[in-house]
Design goal:
With about 120 residues, the protein is mainly α. The protein has helices at about 5-10, 15-20, 40-55, 60-65, 80-120, and strands at about 30, 35, 70, 75. Strand 3 and strand 4 form a beta hairpin. It is elongated and about 80 Å long.
Length: about 120
Amino acid sequence: MLIGELSRRTGVNAHQLRYYEAQGLLMPVRGGNGYREYGEDAVLTVSQIRKLLAAGLSTQEIGHLQPCVTGGDPDLKPCPETLELLRARIAGLDERIDMLLQSRRTLRQYLAATERRAAG
């Protein structure tokens, strides 16, 4: 199928599909006319990419995981690099969450102090 058909079937615009190709996540072949041609498996691959992006993974991380990705959910085989990457990503999220919680506490303190001054 051509890129327009893949775009229609996945809901992902052609520009984004070309970006996935540039990142090494999609591997179309070039037809005799130079057009990108995708196999049926590209629909599943795009779905997997979109779901992994929605989970917060970067295209570079997805590229490392792709050999371990199966199914439409996607399912991940327990490859060593998969476990390491997911653990590191979760640790990074935990760190950012802790920083955000601290920021919220501090902002609430500023707000409370400012409201007390406004009322007094």
